[in-house]
Protein 1
Amino acid sequence: MILYEVAGADDRRLSPYCWRVKWALAHKGLAFETAPLAYTQIATVGDGSFTRVPILDTGGEWWIESFDIARRLDAAYPDRPSLMRGESGLSFARFLDGWTESMIHNPTFGMVAADMWGRLQEVDKPYFRRSRESFLGVPLEVAEEGRAERLPAFHEGLAPLATLLAGQPFLGGDGPDYGDYIVASAFRWLAVVSDLNLLPSAGPIPAWLARLAGRCG
Amino acid sequence: MILYEVAGADDRRLSPYCWRVKWALAHKGLAFETAPLAYTQIATVGDGSFTRVPILDTGGEWWIESFDIARRLDAAYPDRPSLMRGESGLSFARFLDGWTESMIHNPTFGMVAADMWGRLQEVDKPYFRRSRESFLGVPLEVAEEGRAERLPAFHEGLAPLATLLAGQPFLGGDGPDYGDYIVASAFRWLAVVSDLNLLPSAGPIPAWLARLAGRCG
């Protein structure tokens, strides 16, 4: 299998959704290679119809959308450790998908977008600035203003995550599952795109991320 | 079984945690009666050691703490429909417990506390005002100021709930489980203690609450 993912100037892998798929493939024990792309090269993959990563070439089929890829991996490899673990686990993963969007990606994107721009391949910089400034409604450098003052509210919003992880080692319970990878990928993305340390400095969340890094690379 | 719960002047049942237990007992198909109390009568139950509701008299044992009661019901009645449904469901319910605290109870308590005070039994009013004003740090009437202006941020925080319920009928999937009851009990509590309509006026959340009311009373 080959996973196409977006990489920056120094080969940093910039997509949280690709991190989800890499953790999912590792969870299933599947070997894979990664193929780094610039954002502006995505349309060169396959038949040219793809507009986003991840794109997984399974050797005959092209799979897209990280959540769908995880479900297809469970369906294709039912004898390997499950990513979703039944109806309740699927529901929890879906909730965490929305929660991560709402409570991690949305409040932090403006804080790190200018840093992320600085780490792109040169060819991507005009596209990224134009599209993300359109999304944010302000220049990247304005979006990050006052970011240190926004950290306490961001950390406060993480309370349900910290509370759960204070009582059990992984979101999935004794071991990680796809819900863990969804949330952890957002933190991995933040660490890759910016030197601003957005993590709570102590407590259950950094301890959980260290456990995941130890298990899944 | 007898469930002791807090009731207001007009017998309104005022504890979201007791709603959780009532839905849990109904889910298990267990018959029960409720015994209404004033807050200041809780210490008259059992051996006088209890300080909070719910208190469930199972006919020989006293069970407390809503989440623990739900787990004990699953353990005692394993052949009846499960509330937690395995490790993933238990993890999801724990996460929703913290999320409900953080995203429903915390932002709304100040908005409705004065209304709730007005619906208490007279005997409870001094205790409630004293303890809740200590918790809130301001008089109840100050805590509710500007509440209409706080509703949009509250609704925005509900996005992960609305997103999940746009794609499936219950948080548990095709049918409700304890996670549904945790979150729905917070909305039921808000509807009981205040005439302020805090619900989003349309969309998946009110539709889900209507489905739950139809199934579980």
Note: Residues 86-118 of chain A form the longest helix (33 residues).
Protein 2
Amino acid sequence: MANKASKVSETVIRRLPIYHRYLTEIIDKDIERISSSELSKLTGFTASQIRQDLNNFGGFGQQGYGYNAVDLRNQIDKILGMDHTYNTIVIGAGSLGSAVAKYNDFRASGFKIQALFDTNTDLIGKSIDDIPILSYDDMKEYIIEHKIDVGIVTVPKQSAIDVINVLIETSIKGIWNFAPIDIHVPEDSDVIIENIRLNDSLLKLSYYLKESHLKNEY
Amino acid sequence: MANKASKVSETVIRRLPIYHRYLTEIIDKDIERISSSELSKLTGFTASQIRQDLNNFGGFGQQGYGYNAVDLRNQIDKILGMDHTYNTIVIGAGSLGSAVAKYNDFRASGFKIQALFDTNTDLIGKSIDDIPILSYDDMKEYIIEHKIDVGIVTVPKQSAIDVINVLIETSIKGIWNFAPIDIHVPEDSDVIIENIRLNDSLLKLSYYLKESHLKNEY
């Protein structure tokens, strides 16, 4: 299945967490089975789109019977690698870094946060929910010693470029970047970078607020 | 221009914050002018795409002369409503709420955070960077009294649905939602909701990590 999954397009991958979210809502409501047309009503994707997406991974639906919500979510868990564990560090122990370190959903997703790193000597030596805050100077060594898979970058924009360039040089496999910058990964590197664009999202909100505001004026 | 802008497609709107980000990088490097082809190299969009996008708003480029980076960013600021100020509250004064309240970029974007709201009596009465933490029970009244435009929802998934349903009933214009849930805004409501999908992003990262991991095994 892995090889099959690895051929799946990014657009399908982007929809899988959405299925995952809705299936969790369904399971929380103790609903056992769901049809592709019911999933279509929830997600807004067409039923055939949904069947196609899920068929990419071996299609677990049964004609006129629908999907077993728990089985389907378990399958998606596997596809999304949620049965794996990723040794994770957070770079930046400020308010955003603390929030990330405390956010249980991330731990639940298999991202085990081992340490935070900061240059602020007031923070180094302290800990957040029993996760130690270590000196940024020791990060590279720590990544090798503790076989760290993922670095979550929560430092300010000004330092983020340097931090990410350092991370790319290490054995780290993935970077989850919260800084509003664009990273150009060198050709020979196979580090995976996923960006959270808080500012882009806020500017989008700002645009629609302004537009509705203007509309209300006419 | 407002009426013209309001006809612009969402895909264009989504690209504007990206232009904004790159223009800021350029301006930080003291570069005065940039051509659409240079912007194309940076953003990965085609030069004609870029010219088209910017023409939506009255095209400020000059043949063989390019764009003045500062002027262009100022124009995009206006288009994105960054010259407006939005009275903002944060619901949830936990670690994520604190991080949002402390994040200067949001303030810079015109989202003025007036107060945080929480149900935790240990937090109520305290403040974060001089922003008071008030009782959630007083939120509805506060929104009316202080003409609040935007609510940023940072409460856990379990409470988020209720909070957002309460917000939708108020005079609030926009909601920035960090909870991993989907909100169905009633037909008659014109509240604008922008979601930050932290979990979706993390699951996407998890998928690609798993895939690269499997590839390395073969």
Note: The longest strand of chain A covers residues 111-118.
